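Model the whole thing, not chain by chain.
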Amino acid sequence: MSIDLSQFIPTFLEESFEGLELMESGLLNLEQGDIDTINAIFRAAHSIKGGAGTFGFNRVTNFTHEVETLLDEMRDGRREVNQSDINLLLKSVDCIKLLIESARDGVECEDDAINETHLALEQTLSGKAHGDNDSQDVSEVEQLLSEVKSKKQWLIEFVPKHEIMQTGNDPLHLLNVLAELGSMSIEPNLQDIPPLGDIHPEECYLYWRLTLVSDCSEEDIIEVFEWVEDECSLTITLSDSDEPSPAIESVEQPSLQVDQTPPSQPPSQVPQKSLKAPDESVKAKPTTEGGSIRVGIDKVDTLINRVGELVITQAMLKQIGSELAEDETVDKLREGLVQLESNTRDLQEDVMRIRMLPISFVFNRFPRMVYDVSSKLGKKVELKLSGEQTELDKTVMEKIGDPLVHLVRNSLDHGLEMPEERKEAGKDETGIVHLNAYHQGGYIVIDIIDDGRGLNTEKIYDKAIEKGLISADQSLSDQEINELIFAPGFSTADAVSDLSGRGVGMDVVRRNIESLGGHVSLSSQQGEGSKFSVSLPLTLAILDGQLINVAGQIFIVPLVSIVESVQVNKSAVKAIAGQENLYLFRDEYLPIYNIRSLFSLPGKVSPADENMVIIVESNGNKYALVVDDLLEQQQVVLKSLESNYMAVEGISGATILGHGGVALIIDIKGVSSLNHKNSRSKKFSRERSVAEATT
Amino acid sequence: MSLTIHQDIDTLVESKQFLSFILAGDEYATDILKVQEIRDWTSTTLVPNSPTYIEGVLNLRGEIIPIINLRTRFGLPDLPDKKNRIVIVLNIVSDQKRRLMGLLVDAFSETYDIPLEKIKSAPNNISVIDDDFISGLTTVDEKMVILLDVDELMNSNELSTDCSAATA
């Protein structure tokens, strides 16, 4: 796979740091049972892992994998969310940050904190079998880390503030955790307890003197109290020891801060190296500034709407300008208006381009996926990518990822043959999957081409009959049969693999693509391969429209669905049961959709010679729309009818024309179902047909 | 914006402001806080297969809003000319969604400060208008004013049921 991945590294870094921020804030707000937050953290970790894998940042991948596993257990409910795990995860976030930074700068990051955290993660994960209290496992790990030392006797004076319970901390829990570090004796101090009448049931009046005999370090003890530091005064004294470590340390750290590398430690214990690493990376940081800024999509959308309004106003001015009487000043005004027009057009294009991103953002997930899938299937596959710089709208991009993944998987799973089979067929053992993107009109076309076995038309035909999708006496062309794979509930895979073949695939793919205003087509040559073409509008906010006139009102037909427009040829209009509902066009009988009657607009219904017929295509079917007149073509900004009104059948939206009036956009699919309904309700309704006959 | 202030005033003086308009000689009124603006009639774009009382949609500074002919809505004979009539643009809430809609009426009349105690409930089943639309009756200068609940008048259920009836 010969693509230059390095161009995507800045994006990966940007996204990863964003992901880390998300993880941090998520962890800090994490509460027991908060599945959504855990999921969000998990997803962030997962994308970092995936991205790092793509760019070969193995240390990041490995490390993040452990984090992900831990999160996965929390997500499944196999592991309870507790403070020490959260601490560990927060430390891990810091470590991932360090690792990514060093990967970016191309330096080896040797940091004890990272190794330590990595080890702790592994231990936490493996240690969960014995004992359901995870903090114990962490402390075990740290015991391992700090080597076996001689047992020491710690004297701890733990004086919680009275309000400690109100912050959700239970001193009993702390004492239990502490007791797990070694053998402990507890001596409660009762002298603060007020007279019974003054006791507030939610306050804690006790404090304790603890004697802990353990081989743990001071940090272990501090860690237990980490989350109540602010709510207690803590004195830890080492007695009976030969080590000259600090005798008394009162804990005065600020409450847990995320960007802080492991909580400040006494100098003797943990090397200060961990603090150096980020400093170095700051120095070595390449100048990534000036590349991009992140702006909320809603701001961009507001801007786009605003510019849309500007274009309308400009068109209004232009119209007024052309109506003015000839005059020298008017000429100047017109010159200005022409300039205004070109400036607004440029502005509109520029603004639309803010939302445009290269398709490589979608493509870059495929090398890895193809690698994984092909090794799973035991196939040899070469992935070719071309046209990665083709730009399309961000919202379209977000929605096209999954359908594309599905199509590529499909090609890998069903399209390409096993190496031996390919050899027998006289092909190269390595199959080729080619993703190609290019612009065509206002559309982006993405081709997924494989040189596999192609679609087995006979098998599809048999399957379709078996599934009742078609009846045996239907005569279908090969192309029509192949298109059946897009029918709901169709799957030819004999055994359902975990990759594809559940029969929920292709119809969903097609539906998703069509909901974006695009369509998917296929061509296949048995034994030589197949090609799926997905074409999508570059943006969902603007569409190229053909303005038409029906009964004095302007409608818009999306240009993409128009095949051809011709003058009505009265002799081509054919009738069934006395109703003129077919149009003979290039040897095809197309159903006539008379916009005037379908939309209940006033005027004569029957198509006349001076009318126009627009041949449109939707869902692979052609229809003949009868309209009064064709007007100009123009780009229109889509507006929703539903935001203030409601959905109207046969209408996909509205737009505002140059003169400020509203024009409705015709939805071909909706019109066809409208026609269906109309002709059915017409069938036996006497009044309607009589009324129509008289008009 | 002034909603909370207004509510405060409500509780103090226990009155509410209404904007009234004329429709076929009768006076109707709506909560003034629902009114966004009043504009002259401009021609609209017809919406296919819509109920007859939907005059169509128009462009209100980039928003596409439907216009409802209240005469047709109430089953009154429509006037041949729309030129001198006005459209009251209402900011209503239906389905927890803010919507803008225009109401085509004969003429704008007054704004009233009506004490809550003066608002009488309307007897049931008195007219072709659905009871839900009338929130009460009141008397100003010995004239009856019909208070409309515009949220009810144009809530989407109402629209959708009417439309399906119209297209069926």
